[in-house]
Design a protein that fits this description.
alpha+beta; six-stranded mixed beta sheet; 17 helices; 23 strands; about 35% helix; about 20% strand; binds flavin-adenine dinucleotide; binds ligand LVLLB6QQ; Trp_halogen; EC 1.14.19.-; oxidoreductase activity; Tryptophan halogenase family protein; Flavin-dep_Halogenase_NPB
Length: about 525
Amino acid sequence: MLKNVVIVGGGTAGWMTASYLSSAFGDRVSVTVVESKRIATIGVGEATFSTVRHFFEYLGLREQDWMPHCNASYKLGIRFENWREKGHYFYHPFERLRIVDGFPMTDWWLHKKPSDRFDQDVFLMASICDAQRSPRYLDGRLFEQDYVEGREPAGTPRTTLLDQGTQFPYAYHFDAAMLAKFLTGYAKERGATQILDDVVDVVRDERGWISSVRTAEHGDVAGDLFIDCTGFRGLLINKTMEEPFISFQDTLPNDSAVALRVPVDMEERGLRPCTTATAQDAGWIWTIPLFGRIGTGYVYASDYCSPEEAERTLREFVGPESDEMEANHIRMRVGRTRNAWSGNCVAIGLACGFVEPLESTGIFFIQHGIEQLVKHFPAQGFDPALTDSYNRSMADAIDGVREFLVLHYKAAARDDNAYWRDAKTRTTPDGLQERFDQWRSKPPAADTIFPRYHGFESYSYLSILLGMGGVPMKPTPALALMDGVAADKEFQMLKDEARDLVKRLPSQYEYLAQLHR
Ligand SMILES: Cc1cc2nc3c(=O)[nH]c(=O)nc-3n(C[C@H](O)[C@H](O)[C@H](O)COP(=O)(O)OP(=O)(O)OC[C@H]3O[C@@H](n4cnc5c(N)ncnc54)[C@H](O)[C@@H]3O)c2cc1C
Ligand SMILES: N[C@H](Cc1c[nH]c2cc(Cl)ccc12)C(=O)O
């Protein structure tokens, strides 16, 4: 059996991988992380998917075990601002749609139009986010009793439902560097070895597979399986194994970012329980509220905006609190490595692939890559069928998210400059235009979205299409022939429940202040 795993890279990908493998295999597999002291991690990556809770559960970690160490807060969804026109906003929440008489509430919304805020009419989360409420009561109970959480107390045999479509009502925001540090401790306590050194060369055998990585001061580090977590560099998978990188630049032009970390007085400002994506002249600005500061950054297309202009725009957006803060300029490699697994080398994290963080998918790709690696873990012989299956799963997840992100720009009603007008006519990934044309007549459903697992369900597509406002959606004809009484009752119930929850739930600041105490 395969015994020695060597991970190169100590960012979020490196230490998430080391933690998970140490937790999965214990001392039956040796895990070594080689990370440079000289090369910085990307320094961003702070909002997640709701399925990240399976990662922490698999490690036997409860929220109170890790959140206080990472300035973590809750994310009930994403608030998209100014994508339709200035002043307009809507939410894409972690909340499935209720079904009435066989149709999702968005279909009934298109038919009855109870108000101009579809998100407030069909989701509870929109009101909870607007009121900056916590998803948990001060005694820790979750607002939505339907969610049976903690089925297995931490530490017993774990289940990971990542690809079985659990829908938990929230995700997290956390400080990426603090999480990597926390997971370093977790992994080392469970036997992982950390070597702080630069990999300066890679030794390959006669097959071209990696036999060891050569470090500057600690000699050669041999292994059976090598995990490339070196970020955009792709030191092992691209540079050594020569796996080509497929650029998505033709369909997703945002290739740059400038980020700031800004301390804020949360007691005074409050703590919105969601990520905000505010459209700009050449991209969009993220605002991620952590406990004690905000993470913010402008993701933009360098064809339409210079780094200096982007930094000016970001500082103006944030205001005087940003004056003393140093900006972190980032060039993004958008696309994916053709095969994440080649020979005895597997790329996880930015080395595997990346699309702009509009739907917080970077850490989702890492988690998916790790979970799939355990599911496809090789025997000594490395069965090519396992490698092929792994590569298909990773390619589908990244290609599916790419298509979903392109949809955001095609569906955005904004057309007030070349950047937003070009977004409507730019090349689309194969298959999207046909699906797009279908959705004009019949709203997206499970069988008409990207067909393979990529983390999103049809309600996410409906949220974006209805929120962005650029694609007129027709009501479903059948609803005009039905009495609709049950739908009216459901709209009223949603309104009553939302009002009641806003009244009863604590503010997110109140809940987190207690948790971080
Ligand atoms: C602007 C931006 C915003 C983002 N926002 C989000 C978000 O909100 N949500 C989300 O899920 N994802 C987000 N992401 C993606 C997320 O940041 C990454 O997925 C995550 O940080 C993983 O990075 P990594 O560990 O793969 O690479 P990195 O953080 O770049 O780490 C690379 C590691 O490799 C080491 N290394 C490199 N070369 C060598 C060498 N020769 N020898 C030894 N060590 C070496 C470095 O020292 C470092 O430790 C964002 C990305 C960008 C660019
Ligand atoms: N796997 C789903 C993906 C998902 C569902 N709703 C949202 C909302 C936002 Cl803001 C990001 C991702 C998703 C999940 O994580 O629940």
